[in-house]
Amino acid sequence: MGEESVDIRLEIEKAKVPLPPQPQRTHFVLVHGIGGGGWCWYKIRSLMENSGYKVTCLDLKGAGIDQADPNTIISFDEYNKPLIDFLSSTLPDSEQVILVGHSAGGLSVTDATHKFAKKVKVAVYIAATMLRTGFVTTQDVKDGVPDLSDFGEFADVYDIGFGSGPEQPPTSIVIKKSLQRKIIYQISPLEDSTLATMLLRPGPIQALQSARFKEGGEGAERVPRIYIRTARDRVMKPEQQDAMIRKWQPQHVCTLESDHSPFFSAPFTLFGLFVKVAASF
Fold first, then answer.
1. N or C: which end of the chain has fewer CB atoms below 10 A?
2. Residue in 111, 260, 261, 265 annotated catalytic
């Protein structure tokens, strides 16, 4: 049988008949939240690539290894430019991706689906800000902005940057190192929360607060959405997640018994959900 297969292949090559194209691998694009970076997906990326998926982990402007100073990033368009550039210039027109956003990365996902709906097969929100038009109303802010007042006053919880001067609004924030495990990673492995404490950077708060999107675009409403709730979340509280789900109902909702960072606290379960998404779409 082996020699016969080789002979057939040789005959095809002699006849200059092209072999059928290989099936395109499912491509996931993973977007981090404020202060994070592509590094936060290291467990998920390993699991997915070992299973044959194509994975891209982006650093948004001023995040991860991007060298920009977050205090100088004022507009959301500038902050989200790496994702938009990837979809517009790097990704072939014939390819679609499964776009995943964690936490504030949900704003990036929504922006991208408004602008490049044809390139997004499905949008996945993980403990994420999911607002159809961004921060337009006070209710949007209430639903989509973390409320950490249970842990103290704003200045007690965050390290704050004032790139425009001390009399101007903050330009960057990051949860204080002493509180990060308690707030963000309370059930994650200690080694992961330690790594995160070393790598988290201040995020451009003014840029995120300016996130507003025009409805319509190229058909963002036609992009299927999946929301992954995090039931033990102390950052994006479950009631906030539920409010956004009710307001802009996705096609599917799943719940993980995880903290705000399921890529650390529940990586295998999260990976299993990704596999189901890939199979379903």
1. N
2. 260
Which of 228, 53, 40, 30 lies closest to 126, judged by CA? 228
**Residue that is written with structure tokens 């709906």 in the block:** 117
Q: DSSP label at 199? A: H
Reading the block at residue 221, the tokens are 């409403």
Q: Which of 32, 103, 143, 265 is catalytic?
A: 103
CA dihedral sign, ordered 193, 195, 198, 203: negative
Q: Is 3.40.50.1820 the CATH classification of the domain at 27-280?
A: yes
CB 253 within 8 A of CB 227: yes
Residue 172 appears among annotated catalytic residues: no
Can 252 be counted among the known catalytic residues? no
Which one from 233, 258, 259, 265 is the annotated catalytic residue? 233
Report the distance separating Cα 181 and Cα 195, nearest Å.
11
Is residue 103 flagged as an active site residue?
Answer: yes
| pLDDT in single tens digits along all 281 residues of the chain | 445 555 655 554 555 555 445 567 999 999 999 999 999 999 999 999 999 999 999 999 999 999 999 999 999 999 999 999 999 999 999 999 999 999 999 999 999 999 999 999 999 999 999 999 999 999 999 999 999 999 999 999 999 999 999 999 999 999 999 999 999 999 999 999 999 999 999 999 999 999 999 876 557 788 999 999 999 999 999 999 999 999 999 999 999 999 999 999 999 999 999 999 999 98
Q: Smallest Cα–Cα separation from 72: which of 154, 161, 157, 199?
A: 161
Integer Cα distance of 77 and 82 in angstroms:
10
Where do the domains of the chain lie? 27-280
The structure's pTM equals 0.91
Cα gap 247→221, rounded to integer Å: 14
